[in-house]
């Protein structure tokens, strides 16, 4: 009898605790932002000859920050321009190796947006050729898209 009572209680709770509510649910906003909002940093990556990994025998890869200035972001035109320079505290021997053809650029984009390189542009966060303006497609969460041109110059 106790077994039947437990089964009835479980069935009753399962029916009472479920919901079939389909109407009057709150509509959640879909993010519409499709902008590049900031330049986070520009980096030069290099191999460190003084450190060899014990397990692999490979040289360590290090990165050094470049100074970023004159950031201009035009949301209507879809352009982001900035200049970079080698700071005074840069690692010895690496300053002359810095080239716009092998820099790592990192930017912020709108919440829930996705950025994709187009026309052969380098991926953000990976070394790439920044000697020319690069183009990117930023897609908002609601599906809207905007093409951005990102340009870097050396001071």
The largest sheet is: 7 strands, mixed
Cα-based radius of gyration, to the nearest Å: 26 Å
Cα(first) to Cα(last) distance is 86 Å
CATH topology: Immunoglobulin-like
User: Which range best describes the helical content: under 10%, 10-25%, 25-40%, 40-55%, 55-70% or over 70%?
Assistant: under 10%
CATH architecture: Sandwich
Question: What is the β-strand count?
Answer: 7
Our count of domains comes out at: 1
Inertia-based shape: elongated
Helix/strand structural class: mainly beta
Number of helices: 1
Mean pLDDT figure = 90
Which oligomeric form is depicted? single chain
Description:
- By secondary structure, the chain is mainly β.
- The chain has one domain (36-154): Sandwich (Immunoglobulin-like), CATH 2.60.40.4120.
- It has one helix at residues 2-16, and strands spanning 36-52, 59-74, 79-85, 103-109, 114-118, 134-139, 145-154.
- A hairpin with a 6-residue loop joins strand 1 and strand 2.
- The protein is elongated, with a radius of gyration of 26 Å.
- The model has no long low-confidence stretch (mean pLDDT 90).
Topology (SSEs and partners):
Layout: H1 2-16, E1 36-52, E2 59-74, E3 79-85, E4 103-109, E5 114-118, E6 134-139, E7 145-154
List keywords for this structure.
signal, 10% helix, mainly beta, Immunoglobulin-like, 7 strands, seven-stranded mixed sheet, 155 residues
Entry summary:
The protein has 155 residues and is mainly beta.
